[in-house]
User: Fold these one by one.
Assistant:
Number 1:
Amino acid sequence: MDTIFSRRTRWPALFIVLCALGGPLVAMDVRQTSGAAPVLWGDPSGRSPVPATSWAQVAAQDRAAVVGIRAKRVVTRTSDTESHAAGSRTIRRESVGSGFLIQSDGYLVTAQHVIAETKDIRVTLSSGGEYRARVVGQDAATDLALLKIEASGLPTLPLGDSDLLGVGDPVAAIGNPFGLEGTMTTGIVSAIGRVIGAGAYDRFIQTDAAINPGNSGGPLVNTAGAVVGVNTALVSQTGGSVGLGFAIPVNLAKAILPVLMTSGHVTRGWLGVSIQPVTPPIARAVRLPGERGGLVIEVLPNSPAQAGGLQLGDVIVGYDGRAIATAPDLGLMVAETAGGTEVPVQVWRKGVATTLMVRIVAQPEAAGEILAEQTEDRLVVAVQRLTPGLAKAVGLPRPVGLLVLDVEGSSPAEGILQPKDVILEVNGHPARSAAEVSAILATQKSGEATLLVISRNAATMLVPIEMSICVQE
């Protein structure tokens, strides 16, 4: 059995483990989609989710619909031998996970990373029967897959409503951790909408019900035995459960599965901006009432955003009539918009609210985010006007801006500006000389933040600075 694939997160010494043994690692970018006709999963004669009297009753009625999944793939690796002749070897790998039946004619759900890039997928029922499965559809962005086996009269699980979950609600995970079929563990919901760094749009159900490698794709169920999540990942130092498991909300799955059923893949809307969260310093710098929306730090060329008139420094506060509370909210809303749809986008620009009409296109790319750091201490910056030679050296097409030579100040200022940064704008004004920048800064009122547009390693970003700043040539 292969080792667990894992990847580092922002937590030191911790790992996000996609809970399939030997499964290929997939970066999850969780986004919603809509527009498909609703599908009634399960037979009309199937049981409805009613409260069970005990977890034993839930186990008795649910475990029969939970399946084991083994997916095989063949990897050919080519290398050069000592004699410089090309050599190759074939490696067979097996991914082990879980799934659950949603229709009695053999449709079942699992995690996409369990079956990604595999060719031979075998599904084992609780009764012991084994079937070869075909992939009906899969979506790496949400880590969901819909499979089909040729069978009938199978037990199914009803899909519940994950929006009704609250912290403290009891839940159970059912699956095949470490290949041990039909294992059930219980716990509570420990967080809702958890962002774990798996993607720009992750909104997981966090639970302390033990989730281990092999649980991926299995159901997280409530006390009625209805599915409220699809188990997908855990945070661990060792690869085993430490009480931090994560499941995809079933309401996201209910939006994705009909699309996978009809087309096999998901097409998402695309706006074409990079955004970052609006922090208190940014809100003060742009005179925005409240910390809301997403700050535009890049408008991609030939994108709907560029065609619609969005600009660097805009704060997107509304989309299609809905308020944007946080930057990731925008990505979710854009993703669920059908290509070709024209939507109103509300922006805050230089202290004034305005609405732009933008025509969204179909594009699976996700918007990026750049997080800026802030400080409150005095910062002295030594700069030099950009020459054509210096512009070329730092990856800029034109000699516009001020090259940062040195940054002085106390340690909290480190990372705000760095040598080789290029200051392009200060509070919306071009940075042509230290004298002009100093004059701009002199007009600031006490307590106002400075908003810089800088280029770092040829990438543009907006940096708010809440401190006394002195620019010297």
Note: The two ends are 62 Å apart (CA to CA).
Number 2:
Amino acid sequence: MLCFLALIIIMIPPFLARTNRINLPFEIELFVLLWLVLDMTFGRLLGLYEASIWYDKIIHFGNSGLFGLIAFLAIYTLKMTGKIRTGVFINLLAIFLIALGLGALWEILEYITDLILHEDTQGSPLMSPLNDTMWDLILDGIGGLVGGVLGSWYMKHSSRSLVRWKKFMDIVSKQVSYK
């Protein structure tokens, strides 16, 4: 399921632009791959989730970083296409809230998985399910805050950002005009 979700996330930009020349930045694709390897291979197959309470927390902080990147890309796209006009604080708040909301959705899916499939995804050898969930949400909030600060700073100060966006919009407008 996680691999399928990651594939969908990576395929969204080329699908929306209707060309394979537009992709997520390589760094984000690499981060998604690293996240999957750490979760699926090390965490589940090697049993690091059960061996250490801290492994789950590191993975959750990484998840929130990924959620922050997704939120940043959404806000960035809306801002650069002129769909929204926001300042630094609103950008930061939106990225933070989207990342926190995705983290909460993740926790809800863990709960449903536990109910239906009896997987025991919540809790750990040293923490009750409630404490585990609360710490996961706290880490999601911290990761969302870091993503919000970095994303807002990038939107405000990056001159490369505007150049890349203009190239992206040129490609997209050419695709639309061919129809």
Note: The CA atoms of residues 41 and 47 lie 9 Å apart.
Number 3:
Amino acid sequence: MASFKLTAEMRDDLGKGASRRLRREHKIPAVLYGAGRPAWSMTLNEFEFNRNLQEEAFYSAIIELTLDGKPQKVFLRDLQRHPAKPLVLHADFMRVRDDVEMVLTVPVHLVNEEASVGIKAGGLLMRNMVDIEIACLPANLPEYIEIDIADLEVGESLHMSDLKLPEGVVSVILAHAEQEAADDSDFDIHSVDQTVVSIVAPKAASTEEETEGAAATDDAPAEGDESSED
């Protein structure tokens, strides 16, 4: 797994005005919380932070954050971005404890696209989910979830329950659904079993089949209609 490092400084000046001043100085306000300890307000170097944000793995990695000279393990929990400009307004980090389960989102990587049976047959790949929320201990944290679609045919889909997650990793939504089903026998766990990826028939082919079907219907004699000769 990729290794990431950040440096930060504690801050006491809070509020919107203080945050605006920080951004003018190319600093990003942030907060660190979790692990049963108080929340700490801090600032990040804008250039260092944005450089890390360019890496996909950064969003699902354990980061070594050095705060006022003291290193500790954290992960990125949330980002607040400007609605109209490419700016990060605020960042949330959570402390990592080796014995405490983490909940975070990791990307989905598809493999064997070129070898996929359905794609070779002319099917179109539909990516319904680009990431998945998982829970695991820090030692089991995957950089991404790999999904092999080599055997996926046209008209077939892979759902959350079809995925082979790494050892020690569970899907948050399915774990909640299983608990709900255990508490309520009427709960349908399939109602939350989301489609992750599917291969569908090309639209042109579908339209052509529909047209041919309609033409065949038009050519067929109406019920009760009998031809007669004079």
Note: The chain is about 20% helix and 35% strand.
